[in-house]
Design brief:
Length: 261
């Protein structure tokens, strides 16, 4: 949000004891500030992400115009823990997937390696949030969720690369009425034996079974999921609980909402 406290000048311009050109310049400056303050005070600024401000040539009829930055359709939050090996490919694949949409991309990192530096090289420092090493992935997501502004929030980790159709597939399920939807996951060809063990332990229930139509489920893995942005942001903000997945899914079902894969 934008907060601006600005009182307008009232009454005649003050006499500061100047003469000639200096006095004229002072009067013009005061009048310009007065007109600018009144203009800004009348306008409503609803931008979450900032202001696009530029000056016009039509002074005094137009001193300044303020345009609200459109709200992103999609916020992507990448949680990163020791992701240096895969971060570059992760960010590149996500950017390819969201191309053509109004989006924001946040990397929330708690690594001891160069994951954050790699993400900053791709996205700039303002899109990378650094957290203390040891912060767990659900907590990293929660931090990114609370700072996001998109209508839909998609989540993944720095250890994944996504397909070009990833964003469209997930957001279409949410736009179709589900509060949350998850995609299938698979192992990359270069996965190590340790990667395979972790993968099957964590994601055995979400392997690609060839079915493409969304089906209702009781829970989904946030590692490859999208949610209604307002519903998820509200829950995370209200509860302040970094480990939000299970409780949020329970609330969704209790309120008659649906989750899908």
């Amino acid at each position: 949000r934008c907060f601006m406290t600005c009182g307008c000048f009232e009454g005649p311009a003050p006499d500061l004891g100047y003469t000639g050109g200096a006095k004229l310049a002072t009067v013009l400056a005061v009048l310009a500030i007065e007109r600018l303050c009144c203009f800004v005070k009348r306008r409503s600024c609803r931008a979450h992400a900032g202001l696009d401000i530029y000056t016009g040539f039509g002074w005094p009829s137009r001193m300044m115009e303020i345009r609200a930055v459109p709200r992103p359709d999609l916020s992507v939050v990448i949680a990163s823990v020791e992701s240096a090996r895969s971060m570059d490919a992760c960010v590149r694949s996500v950017r390819d997937s969201v191309e053509g949409t109004r989006f924001e991309l946040l990397v929330v990192d708690a690594s001891r390696d160069r994951s954050a530096e790699i993400a900053e090289h791709q996205l700039g420092r303002t899109s990378v949030i650094r957290c203390a090493p040891g912060t767990l992935t659900p907590e990293l997501w929660a931090i990114g969720i609370s700072r996001s502004t998109g209508r839909i929030i998609a989540l993944t980790t720095g250890h994944f690369a996504v397909e070009r159709t990833w964003a469209t597939s997930l957001t279409s399920a949410v736009a179709g009425g589900h509060i949350g939807a998850a995609g299938f996951m698979d192992l990359a060809p270069e996965a190590t034996p340790t990667d395979c063990a972790v993968f099957y332990l964590r994601y055995a229930g979400f392997l690609d079974d060839g079915q493409r139509a969304p089906r209702d489920v009781s829970g989904i893995p946030a590692d490859n999921a999208a949610y209604d942005g307002d519903a998820l942001r509200r829950f995370v903000t209200e509860t302040g609980d970094g480990f939000w997945e299970v409780d949020f899914h329970r609330r969704v079902r209790a309120q008659g909402g649906r989750l899908a894969t």
